[in-house]
Amino acid sequence: MERTLVIIKPNAVQRELVGQLISRFERRGLKITALKMTTVDRETASRHYREHEGKPFFEDLISFITSAPSVIMLLEGERAVSLVRRMVGDTDPAEASPGTIRGDYATTVGHNMIHASDSRESADREMGLFFDPEEIQAYTLSVRPWL
């Protein structure tokens, strides 16, 4: 089993899509092991997007993610990182396939409504930015409809 980080960004929260997006992950069989709503502070946002520092869009990324509350969660499942990335779809909504989250809901590249870790290494780093170990729950699902 692996874990991955997902951020439902401010524009998706403001569009009242949180429940629909979480439902997609649950219906796929992914387990939520941590979940919270928070407004990301500038320091955390800068650390999260550090690989984009110095790029022309960096300040817009920081301003956007810190502008209003986001819903941040950890999802667990077999090959969770790649599975969630496929469910989220291409960063450019014009290229994202219908049926993916960005293909169905996103309208712009820069404010693309959802973040999903792009590798196990990124997921491990990002989890530590947003969750303390005691916030992560370990449990067994009592019903496993996907088996």
Shape: globular
> How many distinct helices?
7
* Average predicted confidence as pLDDT: 94
By secondary-structure content and strand pairing, the structural class works out as: alpha+beta
Element order: H for helix, E for strand? EHHEHHEHHEH
What are the low-pLDDT stretches, counting only 5+ consecutive residues below 50? none
CATH-defined topology of the domain at 2-38 and 71-135: Alpha-Beta Plaits
Q: Characterize the biggest β-sheet.
A: 4 strands, antiparallel
Say how many strands there are. Answer: 4
Q: Name the helicity range.
A: 25-40%
**Rg of Cα set:** 15 Å
The share of residues in extended strands comes to 15-25%
Please give the order of strands in the largest beta sheet.
2-3-1-4
Quickly give the CATH architecture of the domain at 2-38 and 71-135.
Answer: 2-Layer Sandwich
Give the N-to-C terminal Cα separation: 15 Å
Q: Which CATH top level class of the domain at 2-38 and 71-135 fits?
A: Alpha Beta
Q: Give me the CATH superfamily of the domain at 2-38 and 71-135.
A: Nucleoside diphosphate kinase-like domain
